Amino acid sequence: MIQETPISNSNYFLPHREGRGWVSLLSPSDKALWLQLLSAARHIVITCHRGPDGDAIGSTTALASWLRRHYPEADIRVVAPTIFPDFLKWMPGAEDILIYEKHEDEVRPIIEHSDLVILCDHGELKRMWTLGDVVRDHPTPRIMIDHHLDPEQGIADLVISHPDLSSTCEVLLRVILELEPLLADGCPASSLPLLTHDEAVSLYTGMMTDTGAFTYASTRPEIYELISILLQHGIDKDKIYRNVFFTYSPNRLKLQGYMLYAKLDVWKKAHTSIMTFTNAERRRFGTLNGDTEGLVNLPLQILGMKLSIFLREDTEHPCIRVSLRSVDDFPCNEMAAEFFGGGGHKNAAGGEIWGTMDDAVAIAKKAVQKFLPLLKE
Ligand code: 5GP
Ligand code: MN
User: Fold this and answer.
1) I need a surface site. Which of 187, 200, 297, 310 has the fewest CB within 10 A?
2) Which residue intervals of the chain bear CATH 3.90.1640.10?
3) CATH assignment of 9-243, given 1.50.10.10, 3.40.50.300, 3.90.1640.10, 3.40.140.10?
4) 337 CA: nearest ligand 1 atom
């Protein structure tokens, strides 16, 4: 049984740590704008990117819960453009997320009646699929909370975008820590706990999933101080790990064996591996939504491997989804932007090819050829 430890808000006021490398994420004018936008809003919609991952679900659910506590008069909804994987369904608040692709007629009016939209875990409206058009067409203030490179200009009034941080959940936790003293100043919010247990669980899950359980993009010491704060709110980090990573069906593990045995193609000179996954194979293995998650990481366990490319047929559209993972300095995001119409981070990026699997493999070969000088070393 996990005990929720009562914690005084003032323990975690960060700016005094600036001398040790903590930098404020919010300028004084950002804070003023946040307070102004939030106090004016009555119908708030929080959204994330299509194909939500742990960071998208973690940041939207934690933010929704935190806002409901601090702005009880506002109606706060979380909208995801598309369904999310089954292994995230246990997350607190996930059951309240509205799925736009399933309930378009219900969700569209919610966006159209909102007076504030908060975009989490993406910096471009097109990453919300057609929901991005609905949001773009609705003239209301927007806040962006994100950690992707090159946020789209002009889509948010307040942009809190930090590509140097591990995850949107990390950005959000630091924003909460910076806002808390302001909200606590002479208002009833001072009696509220910094985070609820569930908010801490959501935030930890996003930080954990976006860093491969703290094996990449997680070298800055601040992350561990933030984890320490979350642990003090009673989270069981080992259980969260199992909830996310030990959820395979027998078919999922067999699929993994099959992919590694039959589908792994290693381009030795380029220190690159490629795997393809078709809808016929999806049917053969009874593959469920989310079952292919993580397969792209496996080839990086090969000694000297620098880049892993995973191509999978989309289930709904005639396109191939592309996932790229790398180690060290190889820029997956540059390759994704130049060859696969996408983007992402240095070590994890993605995109898509509108064409056949053969087209996608041919483009992947071209991409590797172009980046060969970086891969060969
Ligand atoms: P995944 O391989 O897990 O689908 O995506 C890895 C990362 O690549 C995501 O966290 C996201 O940052 C980025 N990404 C994936 N697909 C796209 C895309 O179509 N466009 C952009 N800009 N980034 C993407
Ligand atoms: Mn993220």
Assistant:
1) 187
2) 9-243
3) 3.90.1640.10
4) 22
Give the model's pLDDT for residue 1. Answer: 41
Ligand 1 centroid to 324 CA: how many Å?
A: 9
Q: Start-end ranges of CATH 3.10.310.30 in the chain?
A: 250-376
Task: Output the residue whose Cα is nearest ligand 1's atom 20.
Answer: 342
345-354 tens-digit pLDDT? 899 999 999 9
Nearest ligand atom owner, CA of 57: 2
From the CA of 13, how far away is ligand 1's center (Å)? 33
Quick one: pLDDT at residue 16?
Answer: 42
Distance 169 CA to ligand 1 centre (A): 17
The confidence band for 108, taking pLDDT boundaries of 50, 70 and 90, is very high
pLDDT at 22: 75
Q: Which amino acid residue places its CA nearest to atom 22 of ligand 1? A: 343
Please state the pTM of the whole predicted model.
Answer: 0.84
Q: Is the CB of 347 under 6 A from ligand 1?
A: no
Angle between helices 168-184 and 28-40 (to 10 degrees): 80
Which residue has the CA at smallest separation from atom 13 of ligand 1?
344
Q: Looking at domain 250-376, which CATH architecture does it have? A: Roll (3.10)
Residue nearest to atom 19 of ligand 1 (CA): 351
Q: Is the pLDDT of residue 13 over 60?
A: no
The CA 28 to ligand 1 mean position distance, Å, reads: 32
Ligand that comes closest to the CA of residue 345? 1
Average pLDDT, the chain: 92
What are the tens digits of pLDDT across the range 38-76? Answer: 999 999 999 999 999 999 999 999 999 999 999 999 999
